[in-house]
Amino acid sequence: MPTKSTPTTGSSPADLPSCGQHAWITEQVGGWADAATYHLSAVIHVHGNGIALGLQPNPVVWTVASAWRDRMLPYTMHGPAVITGPLPTTTRQTRRLARVIVAEPVPA
Questions:
Q1: How far is 18 from 60, CA to CA, in rounded Å?
Q2: pTM given for the model
Q3: pLDDT tens, residue by residue, 28-63
């Protein structure tokens, strides 16, 4: 089940519609959503321009993403976010993504 997280109200389950999902996610994050994969089984959708708009940092989503990557991320995520299952990919894309996630360098 998708989860919505906001800097002010925390996290709660969300009902992702069966159609119009992109529009729904855009509405939930308050603007164009960037999708980032920090785990093979989940995607974090966060406002694509949250920092420039002055949206509050979202420590819950940052903590989840950091835990999934097994390191503290050197950047923050701002504004509301939605965590969903993985985006549709081919098996080849999934294998490539797994290599990227495992091989990502640890910041010094």
A1: 26
A2: 0.74
A3: 999 988 888 888 788 888 998 999 999 999 999 999
